[in-house]
Each structure stands twice: as structure tokens, then as C-alpha cells.
Amino acid sequence: MESMARTIESEVSDKDAKVLSNIAESVRGTFxxxxxxxQSFIREAIVQGVFRPGQRLNLDTIASSLGVxxxxxxASLRQLENEGLVRIHPxxxxxxxxxxxxxxxxxxxxxxxxxSYLLKLAIENIDDELVGRLEEIVEDLENxxxxxxxxxxxxxxxxxxxxxxNRPRALAQVNNLRGAVGRYLLLQRVDEQHxxxxxxxxxxxxxxxxxxxxxTKHLHKVSNRLQAIVANDEKSTA
Length: 238
Known about the structure:
Layout: H1 14-27, H2 34-47, H3 59-66, H4 70-82, E1 86-89, E2 93-96, H5 101-124, H6 128-143, H7 147-163, H8 168-187, H9 197-204, H10 208-237
Helix pairs in contact: 1-2, 2-4, 3-4, 5-8, 5-10, 6-7, 6-9, 7-8, 9-10
């Protein structure tokens, strides 16, 4: 994926510049520390595909975008390295991490385990009002024309559903795993076109077995397609 590497100080599209500006605006004043704000800014830029896999990150540019010093940027990059989103090299500096096919496979294996757990608990506590709300989200998802909007609606769907499980630590882990691959879904234009209406039917029927089977099939399908895309990119840049 070396072909995708570029520095953030290089020219960016008007769309990316607008996204960066929106992210910076959204994180200002919402965190107790400058480091937390900076970390959130970089993470969101990675997840939303503005900072791409293999891209070298310029500390001064990030700092100036937020009006902070280089110190919180360095600290944020170290934390994001622990999360697997960034890799810090002795001579190249910090780059957005590039996932290998086997890493994507592991991430989805963990997602299946954790999300099946959350789904089971959520169904135990679900009610018709929540099913109705989820149905509305799915309708918006199916009607969305832009991939980025569909991904956002999909995130909202599972966030609302899994919150009913009342397991915040497990949900936080799921969101970290989703964040690690979300940038690939957006950047590589992966859209599994897997209708969520079937999932809504299982939720309405309180059918845990069928809902879990649907979720497992859904995640396996996305994982396999994403692994194939990354493997093909590795071959093309070898």
C-alpha cells in the first residue's frame, strides 16, 4: 500500500479539507484535556478516511489545525499506536497503520464473538418501541445514496441496538474494532449490500438464534471481501 502513502501537508481535496474542518470544530470544547481532543481529531480523521492507510502524519499540520502545540499531538499519536491505528517509525515518523488480510480476519473474528454476545443480551431487553426506532434507521440506511451515509447509518443502527445490552465495556471494544476497519470500508468503497430488513424481522420476533446467524454471516461476508481487496492491493504494490 505504499502507493497510497502521502503526507498530510500535501494538497488535499476541498471535500477532505471540509471534513477536517468539521472534525476540528466538533472536538473543540468537548474534552477535558487538549490531549483527548487531539486524539479524537486524529482518530476521526483516520476512521473517516481523510488520513489514509500508509499516509505519513505531519505533527505541525495537525497542531495548527487544532491550535495546539506539538506535545499533545505526540502524546496522542503514541496512544493511537496502542490502539493499532497509527505506527510510529524511528526515521519515518508516524503513519496511519496498514492492516494485513490476516489482521482483518482476526478483527472480524473478535467482532463476531463480542457482537453475538451483545446481540443476545440486547434481544433479552428489547421492546417494540426500540424495534420501531431501529426499523426507521434501516429505512434511512437503505435509501441513502452515498456510501459514507450508509456507513454512518449502519454504525447508528448497531450502536442503538447494542446499547440495550447494558455492557458498556464490551461495546467500547466493539467500537474500537469497528474503527480499525471503518477507514477501509470507506476508502476502498466496500459496501456489502446486505439488507438489514431481515435482521429487523428477527429482532421483532425475538429470535436470538436467527439474528445471531444473520449477524455472523453478515460479518463473515464483509471480512472476506475486505481481505480480498487488501490482498490484491498488496500484490499490486509488491
